[in-house]
Amino acid sequence: MWGTYIQPPLLIFGIPLSPLNYIAMKNLLEYLKENDAVKASKIIGANGAFISVEKADGSKFTLPVGKKSQEGNLADYNVLITDDGQAIATMNTYQEVESVTL
To answer: Tell me, what DSSP letter sits at residue 76?
Structure first.
């Protein structure tokens, strides 16, 4: 597994906070290698860029590229994994710093 786990303060104004989610963030090329990718291509279209990936077994999948990360080289991208499991290529680095369960 990869990412960062941050333990928040136990209480804020007497309200207990839940532990933060495991934040999944790593370099795009590392992510692709871990997912058996053999080829990645950046595609630019009318609705923006995406990354087309071919796996060793011949199957393919795509990764969207963040709106503010349309420019850049594949080696410079990071991958952010959202709560629902969607991987997004981005030039930025993200880290969850606070979360409150209501």
So the answer is: G
